[in-house]
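Form 12-C: Joint structure prediction
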Amino acid sequence: MKGHFKKVSALLICCLLSLSLAEVTSASRKPIEVVFWHSTSGATGEALESIIKNYNEGPGKEKNIHVNLVYQGYSGTDKVILAYQTKDYVNAPDINQGLTSTLPSVMDMGWSVSAERFLSDSRSKINHDTFYEPMQRAVTYMGEMVAVPFAMSIPMLYYNVDMLKEAGYTKPPQTMDELTEYVKALTIKEGDKVSRYGLNMQVKRYQLVQFINSQGPVSFFGDNEGGRLAPMTKIVAGEDGTLKAFLEKLQDLLDTGGYKYVEDNINEEFAQGLSAMVIMSSSRLGTLDRLMPGKYMVAPLPKVNADDQGGAAIGGSCLSLFDRGDEARLKAAWDVVEYVVSPENQYIFSTASGYIPVNVETENMDKMKAYYKEHPQYKAALEQMKASNPLSQEPLDLTYNEINGIITETMLEFCKGDLNVDQAVEKIVSKCNASLDEYHEAND
Amino acid sequence: MGMKGNVRPKRSVKNVLYQILCLAVGIVIILPIIMAVCISFMRPEEILTKELHFFPNSFRYLENYKIVFSQTRILRFMFNSLVVAFVSSVVRVVTASLAAFSFAFFDYKGKRLLFALVVGSMIIPADVLIVQNYFTTAELGLINTYLGMMVVFFVSATNIFMMRQTFLSYSRSLREAAMIDGCGNFEFFIRILMPSNIPVITTVFISSFVGIWNTYLWPLLVTNANEMRTAQVAVTMLNINEGSSYGPGAVMAAAVIILIPSILVFLLLQKRIVGGIMSGAVKG
Amino acid sequence: MNHTGQITRVAAPKSQVPLSHRIFRKVEPYLYLIPAFLFILAFTYYPFIKTMGLSFFRLNKYREIREFVAFANYAKVLGDEKFIQAIGNTLIFVVATVPISMALGFALALLARRRTKSSGAYEAMYALSMAVSASVIAMIFQLAFNPSMGIVNKLLGLDISWLTDPKTALLTLIIIQIWSNIGYNFIFLLAALRGMSSEVLESAKIDGATGFSLLGKVIIPMVSPTLLFLLVKDIAYAMTTSSFTIILTYPVFHSGGPNGTTETIMSYVYGKGIIGTNYNAAFAATMVGFVLSAAMMTLSLVLEKKKVNYA
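Section 2 - Result
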């Protein structure tokens, strides 16, 4: 009996010891930390947070990965660049959300990892075809997909349904010429003052490049296919006549006297009925749903020439990856990215934020179909993107901020009548080229 | 029994009128802030409308405030701002008063040059220095720390200048009397000079506190954790144009919430700005 | 002092004062400066001198040195009409905002000088503009100045596009800046006014000084140290400001306002450096701005000799 007891207790002790040993070793296996910098807030931010929370509690737990989601405002990309300059691996992220226009800057850093590496890997759960073609191209630089599409939107024409009906229109304008006609009919003047504008849109870089890309089968703002095959060195929209064509149509709009070419508070003014139509990014759909639910509809961007096929360009922010010297971490980061762009999570993200879902499967989900039925405007944004030529893209002009300033300023002068079409073309082209030259002089 | 003399009523009418005037002027001055408060209680459609609309329809519309608390961790942010602002302000008072003491009460070689350096730093724009300071802070290993958030705020040339002005106005004879009493320089500083300059010290503290409380960029730049964000970040998080923005109402609500501690600090310390009769005074 | 109130201290001969004591005496004032200078040198002058040095090189977008170019950056920046315009705007800004904000702050301090039961309330109100951050101030005024729905146009019955019309944009920023400055100026002048010696005031009144002559001959000289301080500070701030331009006009125009009318020296630096990653222009412009500011500061400090009374 005693011997038996001894054996049992010895066995028990062994069990206890091995259990506690297992505890200790598993506790000392710290999860791999993935640092994810983002700039979303509001409902979009909430959606992202819930997606990441689900990851941390689900797949993350199984794979021993923990995502640290950090809000960086819009300085995320600047901070990565700062950290790079000091080779500060500790204070750098694994994943960063940045604007697609910053891709050349991001890829110039030695520690940036091109998404292509993972997308062409057969072991990866996602590949090129996971994403819509225009989106693939939006994150393409120097011939490969360097980042992963994340929060994307497309410009659209928003119009006040009742106002168009009153003026006798059953459908929205499809070309700039039609737009001009509509504006004439929809503008209301009280004496000298305009009390309701037919159209409100300020032409800055965002709007201008859209009207250029969309022309012909496709057009580019700058050389090297808009700076995607190789770094952009000059503007071509002047040489190929697309800039001039657009400005001529804009001149017609200006001549109606019912086109407001500056933006003060475009959302609120549209909601208050101070303008009948506006042209803005589809990312404003959420705001308008809050301000004037059901009173507006959207339509594709009006064509400059009736036979244009380029279509509007998708744009927005994407996710970039960085190698901080730890291969396991990099792989973990990719796992997180795969999760975020999955159809289910894109449904969550898209319906909360208004951005177009990046995964081609999402629109086939029943609940997404139901959502689109209730929110036809969001469907329209998706459809416009699908109908565009994938080559129609936002340019990767290396000094896009300065170019934005040049375009904004020149367009204001043009709209006021201080410049005519040819002068405006000349000014934009020469100043933008000077800006690009200065950049290359300093950076090549 | 208290005797209410017949001299009283006349003076108090004038006094009351004077106070009403002061208050009225005050209301005009803070009209923009009143506007912010009103907007924080307005529905989105009330904020930008064609009709003249100053007061909200109802002060019971608390949606904007709810959004602030649910969308941002504003209380945590304000706590961080409190730590940074309070500690930095205290350190500032110390560095400024010591330096001002040196400039005001001593004569020595290079004093003018050193003071010129201080004044000169007032015109060096901080924005240009941020990047290099980030590198310096990184090299010191202070990224993601409270100290890192505070270290660039520890000295203000403006404060040194202000205190130097005040110390220069301090009565020479009081100073000499103290010296004759066998008071050492540092003793004089601690036991006589500082206590009799409470108004200026308080003012310097308040202006430092409020200024640092409101900073946005530097703390954001040197920290990479959500828990270390400061109060102003809440305003930025709500001020979005894209996606589903909440409108100016929520931003104003955040702004009002952030304003409250500054007002509290001011009210708490207000009595000390009175200005005693002693500072700079000479008897006889 | 002994019990009869006479001074009976005799100075000790130099040889009896220990060397360490004498050295300490000499070094003492510098010691008090160490804490402040430690930080000023590390976080203001060190980066600034680096910037100055870098301005003589061509830099790439990561601020890395490419080659030495001496004054080429300066030539480029001084030849940029937008920069010259920015300098002009900044000077107008200084001249317009500084005197008015000081006068208003002073007027309020004079008004609030006497303590009453409700002092707490209106003193806080006058100082309040100091407590609001620039971005919030900008948002409030932007809503107020909206051409079609803002309160300013509605109350005045006007149709001015305050922030987007080249004729009014700078003026609007000046108004906003003046409002922001009032609180700070007020509170320091209040402390100064309350700290005035009552004996001096009484004797001046007995001498017959009242109203404006009291103000001009007695009060202003007595608070002149504070006035000088505020003048220097306000000028320094106005010469190096960029906040309202960046917050209110850059998002709209992506440059310094309509026709560049609201570009200040520092907003130009911001536009070139932070936004355009063109550090060549940014650093050279910073240095030019610094030289101008230094000139203005020197001018105002000359006033110290002439006009400022220390007790």
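Section 3 - Comments
The longest helix of chain A spans residues 2-27. Residues 161 and 296 of chain A are 5 Å apart (CA to CA).
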